[in-house]
Amino acid sequence: MRRFGAVAAVGAGLVVLALAVARHPAGAASDGATVTGKVKLVGKAPANPAIDMGEEPKCKGKYTTGPVDPAVLAKNGMLANVFVYVKTGLPADAKYPAPSTPVEIDQNGCLYHPRVFGIMVGQGLSIKNSDGVLHNIKALGKKNRPFNISQPTNMVTQRPGFTVTEVMLPFECNVHGWMHAFAGVQPHPFFATTGEDGSFALKGLPPGTYTIEAWHEKFGVQTATVTVKAGETKASDFTFTAK
């Protein structure tokens, strides 16, 4: 009987361990690796076109200077709004549960904020209208089902998100043709969007060799191969050239 009890205890322990692994996949391990880097822009950044918001005084009034289409945001040679993500290299059988908190995209000043963002497959999407004017949001998915919704005033619409991987999925507004945003839909959490300093960090990676891709709406894509060990931090920079 003692032997049976020991076997049962071991079996129970294995069940607990299996549940722990399911809840905390390899990418979320405490000894996960990190890939950091910066995205640079060489050459003179192209001028962003001015936006005529004369027919939308509520939006125009939010700017101290004339609004522009922020397609290229470069400061001190660093490039913002670059979507960086693990393209290949993760275990084929790895499963990463989507966060319960939705990603928010806001319409403020008749522009989308953020302009470039990542969202996991199955993660909710919260669409906010902070302008108090009519916006008509269209998601132009090619792999995911498109949608088209209207928001006539200040409000928030909750959407179920997307079902399959897609890089990148465009958003636009039927009312304001200059409004654009882009979502990187991923089955895992290893993605980031660069800020004004051009930096990014992909944290919690299991040991392995990865293809990292950097996407920009005007300058296209670049890829790099990075190999990391458990707990290691390794740098991988990208450089785009302005044409």
Structure description:
The protein is 11% helix and 42% strand. With 243 residues, it is mainly beta. The protein has one domain (28-241): Immunoglobulin-like. The chain has a 5-stranded mixed β-sheet, with no helix packed on it. Strands 1, 15, 18 and 19 form a 4-stranded mixed β-sheet that branches. It is globular, with a radius of gyration of 22 Å. The relative contact order is 0.25.
Radius of gyration, in angstroms, nearest whole number: 22 Å
Mean of pLDDT:
90
Output the CATH topology: Immunoglobulin-like
CATH class descriptor name: Mainly Beta
Structural class determined from secondary elements = mainly beta
What letter string, H or E per element, gives the SSE order?
HEHEEEEEEEEEEEEEEEEEE
Largest sheet: 5 strands, mixed
- Proportion of residues in β-strands: 35-45%
Alpha-carbon distance between the termini? Answer: 78 Å
CATH architecture: Sandwich
Q: How much helicity do the residues have? A: 10-25%
